[in-house]
Amino acid sequence: MSELSNAEPRSYSRTFDKSRMRRRRSSVLSAGAKSPKREGLSALVVDNGAYSVKVGLSTAQSPTLVPNCIMKAKSERKRLFIGAQINECRDCSGLYFLLPCERGYITKWDVQKPVWDYVFSRNVHPVEDKPVVMTQPLFNFKSIQDCIDEIFFEEYEVPSMFRPNPTDLSKLKYQQDNKLSNNLPCIIVDSGFSFTHVIPYINGNKYLRAIRRLNVGGKLLTNHLKDLISYRQYNVMEETYVINQVKEDTCYISNNVLDELKLASTKNNPIVRNYVLPDFNNIRRGYIQDPNDVNQKEIEENCQILKLNNERFVVPEILFHPSDIGMKSAGLAEAVVDSIFRCPEHARRDLAKHVVLSGGNCKFPGFRDRMYAELRSYLPHDWEVGVYMPDDPVGYSWKGGSALLKVPNFKNLLVTKSEYEEFGSTITQQRFNSWMTDNSEPDSESSEPEISFSYLDNIKGRSIFGKNELGNNDSKFESNTNESDSLGSDSKTDSNDGTNQIPETTENDINTEHSTEQSSNGFNELMNSVDLFPFGTNTYL
């Protein structure tokens, strides 16, 4: 893998390489014939996140974390680093990252494929003959899924595969640990590197109409911290690797931001921390300075010290108030509340009691307490609020892979190599994307009330281009004409004499005319309203 710079990037299309498939058909069929006996025992679980790949056997206690990126250093420009190879780099300052994902979805296959080659190598976790359970982001694109199918079934020759969403595994793990029913409603908050998802589960399935996504993740927080430090102290715009470590080591979630800001403005406040930046000779990773440690003072004399004050809690505050940096988006707690109230009424109380946190951003100290306080203030006082955060929120989805193996129909969820060769990506789309998904119609109790007023009813009978438009008098004339057709022969002879008979105006006609004028005036006011039609009615009609 150290010679990646000399290799040309490969492109992966969705077409079948039929010659390669014929060469491997016999070996794959033999492997597929032996796999059903072992599928129920263990599987290779891969949580392919935008920041890191969590991989390991389902029987292991914890996964192996591999950064999902290719790193380039200024000191060694001819070499690329993947995973643990970064420890061989002599100078990690100014690291340049090649990321395969954009907004959480794979877009650069020439970066993602070498990372997978490293992950599934003999030194990390070879695929062998075990089924693969690999996560994919919510609402993943079909073209991305087709490429994943081709790479895993044809390149890596996996005997069978299943692709759930990471929140599906988190939900299974939560219910297994707490011995809850599979149909009990719960809501999963997955806050990762690229985005944050709020996903409610009702009767064991995702309730699609209440899913919420925030484009706020760890990448945004790191970039904002780089901006603050570069403006106030050192220029660290190219030190993404170091500043990301600073964020993980020093930042926390505040319960009361206004009080913390007042405290941070005082001199010698307890919030200030001095962070020793690494020089990559004596110090490989930065750390918070301890003023009582005498042994480190001699080493720190030649190092740069980064002073952090209100940056420690202002940066993570973006998760709960994205408007602080100008984003027109709701906060995390508001998104959870909005998701709860868009679900059926009978499930809302249970959703509020079972809020599960997962993802790397949940590791900020004080995250769970702040989430509980926010939800408690938004939800009704007689509702019970429960927020659960596991000990390892980063690997929580991966640990749900072991819970997936205990599902009774797990073998039926897998797509084998032979099935893929016969049906292609069609069978993977049907089997993977429909699992734990609720496609039913919305309940009547949660549906919106009917609107009694309709613009179409008022426009009906009118000419769009202004031609042959009937006025009030014309409509009355038509009604009178219809009545005259039903009269006897005496009225016809009177009309033929040339005498114009004026119909008597009754009280009902006056009321009808008055109401017609009011409705027409109200309709004209609506049609000329700037709020409803800011660009004029012509653009809508």
TrEMBL record:
Keywords: Cytoplasm, Cytoskeleton, Nucleus. One of its GO terms (cellular component) is nucleus. SMART domains: ACTIN. It is found in: Cytoplasm, Cytoskeleton; Nucleus. Residues 1-34, 470-525 are annotated as: Disordered. CDD domains: ASKHA_NBD_Arp6. Residues 470-509 have a biased composition (Polar residues). InterPro entries: Actin, ATPase_NBD. It comes from the Eukaryota. PANTHER family: ACTIN. Belongs to the actin family. ARP6 subfamily. This is Actin-related protein 6.
